[in-house]
Amino acid sequence: MKITGKKELISVIKDRIKREGEISFRDFMDMALYYPELGYYTSPQEKIGGFGDFYTASELDRAFGELIGKQFVEIYEKVKENPFQIVEIGAGKGYLAYDILNFLKKEHPEVYGNTEYIIIEKSPYHIKIQKEILSDFEIVRWVQDIIDFEDESINGVIFSNELFDAFPVHLIRKVKGKIFEVFITIDEEDNIREILKEASEDILRYIKELNLQIPEGMQTEINLDASEYIQKIGKKLKKGYVITVDYGYPSSELYKPYRMRGTLLCYYRHRYSENFYENVGMQDITSHVNFSALKYYGMLAGLDFTGFTDQAHFLTNLGLMEILQELQEKNDYESFERLNRLKTLVLPKGMGEKFKVLVQHKNIDNPSIKGLDMLPYMSDRYRL
Ligand SMILES: C[S@@+](CC[C@H](N)C(=O)[O-])C[C@H]1O[C@@H](n2cnc3c(N)ncnc32)[C@H](O)[C@@H]1O
């Protein structure tokens, strides 16, 4: 297979393979997305929005941030700690943070006054944009990594929108009843070649712990980085919630036989492909999140399960329909445009059903929250 994309990044990847021998697909994906200055997320190019490669809900309309802000106000009242901390991980261009902060500052100044908004972001390009857009909010600060917090030191809410889908994943394949891992190497013609090696102990342990039923012949992803990260989050939280918004499924749905090629996809200028080795460093590579894994490994780190729902139900419980109604009644062009954009957040074919919300908590007596009031019909897609 030809490898195409950013020349300097491709040489770095090839040099590493020449030096070390074959590398795991996970390490290839990590370099393609995060290699300093050259990776997709670490280099200065537009990624999210009309001029980028994909949209996120944060970009669509301020109502998304306002409704999440509303949920944080309820959480603030439950956590009752001063300062109340909102930790956003992987904040992208900072639009969601902007809408949440604006909502709190205007509608709930007392909450705003007692809040610290902390961003953890891996992309220097995104940090630069965040610092510009959030310069009016004096309660925002940046922390390099979740491990920089002391254990059990965060009181409040740790949340992310489309973070875990951007983590590098291990690619595995089941052949004749045995699990193999995909590695990549370079052949005599300087092309990329995938080879299979026996899966590592860590991968086999993950499959066993989550009781995954991988069908024969399936190639799929194992997100060990996500399982480690949710444990780090769990250890740092003292009292409060973890809210994870992303697309994905429980294990029982992710490894169904009709997903024989897994869920890994690339996005380049709003078109998707399954060729991970083209546009390297210029395209996003992303996979569906295994929410059963986040629940299970979160529990190991002290996070209790509060609930699992989809974005449509979550936002509706928080008042999206009232916002839609108000816009409908306004009858002006801007409201009409907003109405159309907002429908994307809830329609099943838009982001409404595909995107899920996992809520976990620690040291909270009566943990139920408004976003989980009415839950979707309990099919396999919602049973973690
Ligand atoms: C798909 S984008 C989503 C951005 C934003 N949350 C939104 O809704 O538009 C993923 C973001 O997570 C960041 N990211 C990925 N891994 C990270 C990590 N381990 N720590 C912090 N940020 C990370 C990426 O740099 C990128 O900004």
List the SSEs and their pairings.
Layout: H1 7-20, E1 23-24, H2 25-34, H3 57-60, H4 62-79, E2 84-89, H5 95-107, H6 109-113, E3 115-120, H7 124-133, E4 140-142, E5 154-161, E6 170-175, E7 178-186, E8 192-198, H8 201-209, E9 219-222, H9 224-236, E10 237-249, H10 251-254, E11 265-268, E12 271-273, E13 284-286, E14 289-290, H11 291-300, E15 304-310, H12 311-317, H13 320-330, H14 333-346, E16 355-362
Helix pairs in contact: 4-5, 9-11, 13-14
S-adenosylmethionine binds at residues 41, 48, 56, 58, 89-92, 96, 120-123, 126, 161-163, 166.
**Overall pLDDT score:** 95
CATH-assigned fold name = Rossmann fold
SS field, number of helical segments: 14
Given this structure, which CATH class is correct? Answer: Alpha Beta
Q: Gyration radius, to the nearest Å?
A: 21 Å
Largest sheet: 8 strands, mixed
Give the total of beta strands: 16
CATH-scheme architecture: 3-Layer(aba) Sandwich
Shape: globular
Distance between the termini: 38 Å
Low-confidence stretches: none
Provide the β-strand percentage band.
15-25%
Taken together, the total number of domains comes to 1
Bound molecules: S-adenosylmethionine
Structural class: alpha/beta
Helix-strand string: HEHHHEHHEHEEEEEHEHEHEEEEHEHHHE
Level of helix content?
25-40%
